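Entry for magnesium ion complex. Fields follow.
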Amino acid sequence: MTFSSIIVAAGSGSRAGGDKQWRILGGKPVLRWSAEALLNAGADELIVVVAPDALDRVADLLSDLPRWRAVAGGDARADSVRAGLAALTCSPAQPVLIHDAARPLLDRAVIDRLLSALETADGALPVLPVADSLRRGEAQVMTDVVERDGLWRAQTPQAFRRSVIEAAYAAWADAEAPADEAVVVQRNGGTVALIQGDPRLMKLTYHEDFAMAEALLPRQTRIGSGYDVHRWGPGGSVWLCGIEVPHDQTLIGHSDADAGLHALTDAILGAIAAGDIGDHFPPTDPKWKGASSDQFLIHAAELVSARGGRIVNVDVTLICERPKVKPHRQAMRDRIAALLDLPLDAVSVKATTTEGLGFTGRGEGLAAQAVATVELPAP
Ligand code: MG
């Protein structure tokens, strides 16, 4: 069934400490989650109602998405919904889903249930049962119990045919601010069906709601591996896993030649399929001559954050006969944990020799390999 949609995002969201519709959730602004959900579900058109001074901002945010327009809303929610309705181009009989931007985790199944319900009702409202018992209280003292039988928690989107919601708003006395569109239609004599809502469709109201919503996001686990080799040459110390280790040789390279951090940087880039360290920091670029490899690692970690992901754990193996790694292993773990902002038990550094065999055994070079586990938002 075709449908149109309106997202109301003109509120100030002061209880969450500012404009919550612009806050980042899982790597995307809150508003974008609902816009993508409605368009991916097949909305013919999407009207995004924002504060007048946010029209440019929403244009940037949704520039790559199809079939949407932004209009300026009003101070009251009802004014914003009216502005959204006025901007629709669909027929009077077309279903319109009206949604709060502050409910980003909108599942296709809820949209399907709303559209089905409109086949027999004038409106449809997603609801959840009230599980906790309800009390009335004053000044931190309980004064009464409220029977929860017949009570439901109302969510959005709420669905109506365009002609039904427009007629209901036309009949609404402006002296009273309606809680939502379902109230407007029901008071105008319409039947509003209650359909099964979704706990993930929670409204982001308080700061702590964002942490809960992050935890609810579908995630995928990714693994990347990295490998690096540098050649030994004359010197007095060597950089390994972010630590300067006294030694009678050094590793030769364009940067500080820290093979441990290079392998780890590649492992993290590999987990997010973001190329390799040479793509991001070309050895031909004089900017990286003698550079500390710390910044390569931090850059890879920032790319993970920018995708809404997080590094879960890392494991580095240094392969050499000398220097002895064990006396420095704790310092290396501490350094990597600090650079990646990880707990120490998520950072492993190991060492092995190759029993005198091969280029590492002959002391020609040092090799390092690493794996990293990353969690990303599911596509
Ligand atoms: Mg290297």
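NOTE: The first helix runs from residue 30 to 40.
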